[in-house]
Amino acid sequence: MKKAIAIFLVLTFCSMLLAGCSDAPADGSTAGGTSILNIGTGSVGGTDNTVVEAISSVVNQKTGLKTSTITTNGGTEIIYLLETGDIQAGYSGTIDLINALNGASSFDHAVDPSHMLQCFGFVTWDLPLVVLDNSGIESYEDLAGKRVGLSPVGSSTAEVLMLVLEAYGLTDSVTIENFTWNEGYTALKDGRIDAMVGSWANGDPISGLIELKATKDIRILSMSEEAAQAVAQANAGVSSGVLNSENDDSIASGEEVVAPANSGVIIADASVDEESIYQYTKAVLENLEELKGISNYFDAFEDVCMSVCVEGVPFHPGAAKALKEAGLWEDRFTVYDGV
Fold it and tell me: 132 pairs with which residues across the strands?
């Protein structure tokens, strides 16, 4: 099964290239020899896609680097593509980094950390399942026999929610359907599914949720403490967060919703030279105000750029250099030394 998933992801990527998702060569160069970074991002409408596209725009304007974004199914596929050399950088969820290190879940082997060196974190996603308020579904246990919408196969969010469903013993009693974010919320609104994964990025709902709530009242399902512990034990890259009425007005004042949480990290292959990743990271740090003007997902950047990263995965030397110059580096992390 794992090998089948890996093959599916690679074939999906190849088909997207043939469809013209990027004009950039996969070897990271242009016809004129100018360095270019092919950067993997998730499906349109997700936080990672918004963030990576915004960063690429700023980097292309402010530095001599050239970047080209390539839409994929998410963190798992991106790590595979980094390993094969088809892209040079991308985003990953912390759940994916742990799975890749251990050869777990969709990974049929342990991935060498040199293919997924951390650059900086950019978000923590709270990822509870969301239902329509009039659905009669009040808890995860009520989902037995229901249709549950998740993000695309291979995405970090889908991996997280599969752990949640497993913790509740629901893996074999729900029907899983995979969507892009906006398509999933439309399916929930139209009654084609009974639940869809929600996403609060650094505490704020993503755009698809905001659009759904403009026409429908929703209920956010809270995860039990036992389920949260089971999920964290299954993968150290998954934590739990708490949402309240300040995060969403569908939560009553004084109440809290416990949600599974995954964080997003920009990663790069060790083959990318130190100067390129230094310039990429420095451009982000020096243009945060402009990036905040593009998206509020950057508002908490200084708080999450190191705190959400995975201690077991080294940092790219170029990123570490820029973070140290900015006074953001934390000594609990290590820098890749080529070994």
Answer: 218
